[in-house]
Design a protein that fits this description.
The protein has about 350 residues and is of the alpha/beta class. The chain is built from 12 helices and 13 strands. Helix content is about 35%, strand content about 20%. α9 links the parallel β12 and β13. The longest helix is centred in the N-terminal third of the chain and has 17 residues. Keywords: Hydrolase. It is an enzyme of class 3 (hydrolase). InterPro entries: PseG.
């Protein structure tokens, strides 16, 4: 099984992490290889420590700091990149791929068509629905008003589409129910592994300014976070706050809190699974529509885009969350209903295997 996915501290690590989550479901009975651009050393060690082979590809274009929302490569470049990937695989003795998983916004049908030369089955993970795919299975775990139809003209007739939060790719820890009572005055802050926009520090600054409120907080950042010393000093100035760096127990922290302040993306479904209400600042354009849809369905509170949500907006949202716990519990319950059909850690893997073995 081979995954083609990229990630970095500049463009984010969410795609790597969701592929890693899916890969671990297959690991007990399959060999797994990741093909990626250069990754942070700690993440490389994590991947290889699981027994996954990690192969480095050339950057997909000349600017390795490109956004995942950069334009899709043209046909010629996609074919060339596929040939490059096949050469790398052949060099380590991989001539036939049982399942190829592609999670990359700049790759589409031309890349998959070339990879068919050595791939028995192709699975695409996407969020954008902005290009054609040639694959056997397509997964898009996001919620949109038209989530069940938006790939109708973008995949072949034989492709099985797994669409909506029911098919969220979640780590096994998110399936462990908690019996601990939540603290309505306790919040969790997390904007992903690297938080390149440094929203974590902005929210901590707001907490520092809210001296009149009795609040406790857990603040989570990854090893790729660049402002750790400044953030640590600010967190230490708060009476009831704790900083967690690259923690492996975020589901426990989610279960402890009534409210979580963070970004969109896959954390929507982690929050839903653990029953914590989300107050969201969207970090990228591809997070906006799902977050808006969740906000309109009363499954989260959207505070706005990162360049629009002000410190006053954040302050008022925190004050509202602390003073209106029943509203936050209702938001969390509504969100939880969206992932209720995803009942066990191997649900997505089992669904894929059932499709490709039929």
């Amino acid at each position: 099984m081979v995954f083609r996915v990229d990630g970095s501290t500049q463009i984010g690590l969410g795609h790597i992490m969701r592929c890693l989550t899916l890969a671990t479901q297959f690991l007990p009975t399959n060999t797994v290889t990741f093909m990626s651009c250069s990754l942070p050393s700690a993440l490389q060690q994590q991947i290889e420590g699981l027994g996954i082979q990690l192969l480095s590809t050339l950057p997909i274009n000349d600017n390795e700091h490109n956004s995942f929302s950069s334009p899709v490569l043209d046909d010629t470049n996609q074919h060339s990149h596929a040939v490059h990937c096949i050469d790398i695989l052949n060099s380590v003795g991989i001539d036939v791929i049982d399942i190829l998983v592609i999670d990359h916004y700049q790759l589409s049908a031309p890349y998959s068509e070339e990879m068919r030369r050595c791939s028995k089955h192709i699975v695409v993970i996407d969020d954008l629905a902005n290009r054609e795919h040639e694959c056997d299975v397509l997964i898009d775990q996001n919620l949109y008003e038209d989530f069940d139809t938006r790939y109708d003209n973008l995949v072949p007739n034989y492709c099985h589409t797994l669409l909506g939060p029911k098919f969220a790719i979640l780590r096994s820890e998110f399936y462990s129910p908690s019996t601990k009572l939540r603290d309505d005055k306790h919040i969790l802050i997390c904007f992903g592994g690297s938080d390149p926009l440094n929203l974590t520090e902005r929210v901590v600054d707001v907490l520092i300014s809210l001296k009149s409120l009795t609040i406790s907080a857990d603040i989570v950042v990854g090893e790729g976070y660049a402002n750790i010393e400044t953030l640590e000093a600010k967190v230490n100035s708060l009476v009831n706050a704790e900083l967690h760096v690259a923690c492996s127990y975020i589901s426990t922290l989610m279960n402890n809190a009534t409210t979580m302040i963070g970004g969109g993306g896959s954390m929507h479904w982690e929050r839903a699974a653990t029953g914590v209400a989300g107050m969201i600042i969207t970090l990228a354009d591809n997070q906006i529509e799902t977050t808006r849809c969740l906000h309109e369905r009363h499954c989260c509170l959207w505070l706005g885009k990162s360049d629009e949500a002000t410190d006053i907006d954040i302050s008022k949202a925190i004050e509202f969350a602390i003073s209106s716990p029943q509203t936050m519990h209702k938001l969390a319950k509504n969100a939880a209903s969206l992932v209720s059909g995803n009942k066990n850690p191997s649900f997505v893997m089992d669904t894929i295997l059932n499709i490709i073995t039929r």
